[in-house]
Amino acid sequence: MLYAHFSEVPAAAWRWPDFAPREVASRGDGSLLLIDEALDALQAARTAVGRPMRINSAYRDPVHNALVGGAPRSKHKEGHAFDVALAGHDKEALCRALRAAGFRGFGLRYATFVHVDMGRERSW
Predict the structure, then answer these.
(1) Sign (positive or negative) of CA dihedral 96, 118, 43, 22
(2) Is the separation of the CB atoms in 24 and 58 below 8 Å?
(3) What domains are defined for the chain?
(4) CA 18 to CA 32: how far, in whole Å?
(5) Which residues does residue 106 pair with via DSSP β-bridges, in sequence order?
(6) Which of 6, 18, 94, 95 is 20–30 Å from 47 (CA)?
């Protein structure tokens, strides 16, 4: 479900206790595309690691995606990609939890975060 702004998400529709709509909304216009499968996986990974996970980037509206140099077919625009900060986490342990939760796409070349998505199995 697409919301024009994260503040429009009804409390009854939000079932991910360790995250807030603001954290996974577009940093551009504040819109939010809720993809239950992706947020369920993110919550499962958070529960497994047992510590907070800071989300650097989640859903991106098309304009914001272009402004930040995102790929034209970015999984962020589809609402099922997250850039998870590595601060306070062991990268390998975090990736194991994310993979076990159902993420299949992994961007591992970054020093400060890991990109994960629900797309086809791949890594870079």
Answers:
(1) positive
(2) yes
(3) 2-123 (3.30.1380.10)
(4) 17
(5) 116, 123
(6) 6
Alpha helices by DSSP H, listed for the chain, are 21-24, 36-49, 62-67, 91-101
For helices 91-101 and 36-49, what crossing angle results, to 10°?
140
| Cα 74-112-42 angle, rounded to 5 deg | 55
Report residue 80 CA to chain centroid gap: 6
Mean pLDDT computed over 4-21: 97
Q: So what's the pLDDT on residue 65?
A: 97
pTM for the whole structure: 0.95
- Under a CB-based contact definition with an 8 Å cutoff, are residues 27 and 64 in contact? yes
d(CA 107, CA 105): 7
